[in-house]
Amino acid sequence: MVGGTVLTAGIAGSLFMIVKSLVQLPLSRYVDRHNHKVQLLIVGTFVVSTIPFLYIMASHIYVIYLAQVLYGLGSALVYPTWPGMWSTHLDKHHESFEWSLYATSVGIGAAVAGTLGAVFAQLFGFVVTFLLVGAFALCGCFILFALEKHEPVQKVPVKHYHRRRKASHRIKDH
Which end of the chain is less crowded, N or C, counting CB atoms within 10 A of the terminal residue's CB? Predict the structure, then answer.
């Protein structure tokens, strides 16, 4: 048991957000210029999926802080990579709906996971809950290997893609 306070919880949350925010912008530029997006997604997802196991092993607040920094680094890899890949597969004229579908499924998934996590923590304790969360996250990470084998990510020239989209919108507007 770490024995943190409200302040230490706030610091831990801030560490995650600061690291993620500072790292993801430069990392997103790297992701945009390279074709190994799925590998970066797998690495980031793997790092994120190890965090619940670190929580279990934490005996001091500094381990929680370290876990939050690692969580920020892993998330900085995942968040620009996944939406970037998702964006290249959006159907023309359905972009808003497909982004909304994604956001809705993530929101509902988070709501269900939050409730189930609370139920498991109440019934079985945090150790069992973190073990299950970590195991499910690792399963999700391993599923990404199938994506790597079956989904070659094609590099879409960003400047040309947006010019084509703007040109096609201008034609429709006139």
Answer: C
pTM above 0.85, yes or no: no
Rounded CA Rg of the chain: 19
Return the C-alpha torsion angle 132, 136, 141, 144, nearest 10: 170
Write phi, then psi, for 110 (nearest 5 degrees).
-65, -40
Residue 48 half-sphere exposure toward CB, CA atoms < 13 A: 22
Please list, in sequence order, all residues whose beta carbon lies within 8 angstroms of the beta carbon of residue 93, skipping any fewer than 6 positions away: none
Rounded to 10 degrees, what is the CA torsion of 153, 157, 163, 166?
20
Q: Which amino acid is at 132?
A: L
Mean pLDDT per 10-residue section of the chain, whose length is 174 residues = 83 96 92 84 94 94 95 93 82 87 93 95 95 94 79 53 56 57
What type of residue sits at position 21?
S
Q: What's the pLDDT at 1?
A: 56
Domains and CATH numbers, the chain: 6-173 (1.20.1250.20)
